[in-house]
Design a protein that fits this description.
alpha/beta, 2-enoyl-CoA Hydratase, Chain A, domain 1, six-stranded mixed sheet, globular
Length: about 270
């Protein structure tokens, strides 16, 4: 498989067909620039087609899983129709390529996970999270609709009440709370995250492969049934990238202050 073609992802083969994938941009807390976002969308097709891989484990280099979208990339997207259109396609590829991957995926959430990183963390079949990791969907705080995956996945995992609360406020949760509300499969001390994820992966890799893969395929029909919700939310996110609020959201993030969204200063 063409693993050498990847620049932002690192690959290690382990026994029993376990492939460890590391988001590898630690100096930026594994924030996704255009290259990493493209690779995160593409890699699941390659995993699915790789005859040597039975299970994929995905984690982040350093202390973060992924700090979401690189702010410079987000800034380049704002108001740019061509970039926004391309991202809409790539967002869909990321979600549906994970859902359609023939092999089980385990996420080892070793630190903060937001934005595109949270897509990968939560769409994994089994998610092992550090108890002190911070997880959240901050789209509304940026001034754009929650699109990546959240409207599709959060209600299924945590229920509608929690989904509404966290997606409308942008408030984050730690790993222990994420396990309590059902957002992740397991929460363990940070130093145990990768070991536990690899243990789960070995269990899957040495189990009955057809039974596991077909069970996964059946369960993912819940996600496919919510596909229209995802498609709509993704389009809404990209629509809001064409408006003025996202520029204020970006400025507030860079200046580390509370945003003053133009839409909140108007009546109605």
């Amino acid at each position: 498989m063409p693993w050498s073609d990847y620049e932002r992802l690192r690959f290690e083969r382990h026994e029993n067909g376990v492939l460890l994938i590391t988001l590898d941009r630690p100096d930026k807390y594994n924030a996704a620039d255009e290259r990493m976002h493209t690779e995160m969308a593409r890699v699941w097709r390659d995993v699915s087609a790789d005859p040597q891989t039975r299970v994929a484990v995905v984690t982040g280099a350093g202390r973060a899983f992924s700090a979401g979208g690189d702010l410079a990339m987000v800034e380049r997207m704002a108001g740019d129709h061509d970039r926004v259109s391309h991202m809409l396609t790539e967002m869909s590829d990321l979600v549906y390529n994970m859902v359609d991957c023939a092999k089980p995926i385990v996420s080892a959430i070793n630190g903060v996970a937001v934005g595109a990183g949270l897509v990968v963390a939560l769409l994994a079949d089994i998610s092992v999270c550090a108890e002190d990791a911070r997880l959240g969907d901050g789209h509304v705080r940026l001034g754009v609709a929650a699109g990546d995956h959240a409207a599709m996945v959060w209600p299924l995992l945590a229920g509608m009440a929690k989904a509404r609360y966290h997606l409308l406020t942008g408030e984050m949760v730690d790993g222990a709370e994420a396990e309590r509300i059902g957002l992740v499969s397991r929460a363990v001390p940070r130093e145990q995250v990768l070991d536990e994820a690899m243990r789960v992966a070995r269990t899957l890799a040495t189990g009955p492969q057809q039974a596991i893969r077909l069970t996964r395929r059946a369960l993912n029909n819940w996600l496919k049934a919510a596909g229209p919700v995802f498609d709509q939310s993704a389009a809404y996110e990209m629509l809001t990238f064409m408006g003025p609020d996202v520029l204020e959201g970006l400025a507030a993030l860079r200046e580390k202050r509370e945003p003053r969204f133009p839409s909140a200063s108007r009546e109605g």
